[in-house]
Amino acid sequence: MTVSFVCRTESRLYVEQLFDRARSIDLHLDSQKDSGEQVIGGVTEGLIGEGQEVTWRAKHFGVPLTMTSRVTRLDFPRSFTDEQVTGPFTSFVHVHEFAPTATGSNMTDRVEFTAPLGVLGRVAERLILARYLERLIRDRGRFLAGRT
Q1: Percent of the chain, pLDDT > 90?
Q2: C-alpha distances in angstroms, 105 versus 5, 78, 99, 135?
Q3: To pair with 71 at 20 to 30 A between CA atoms, which of 25, 28, 56, 125?
């Protein structure tokens, strides 16, 4: 079963700035220091673009995980989508949407994922993974917006 959630973040940054911060490999690493995230393949620094991939290694719940994501759509500065190519999920899609506001910009993160392992995965999705990932995405959004 697929689980989804939405996180919205307001920022004083211009929409173009927030868009680029969200696709920055360097800022992603800074925002995920607690999990010891590292880039081990693909685009290793700077801004990731459409059709490009990045492979991350991190520890979550004490378990080392590796995940390769590809940017499958990019419409500067409105939206981009990254999708898991290989990794711990059966599927993982993250749509990033951006809009200008009177005081800066808004970023909306739409995440859909499916855990492996059938019934056990569905239990983990509902009891642990959804809340954990939502917090991770919300905290990352605040970091990118300059509101840590």
Answers
A1: 83
A2: 20, 11, 6, 21
A3: 125
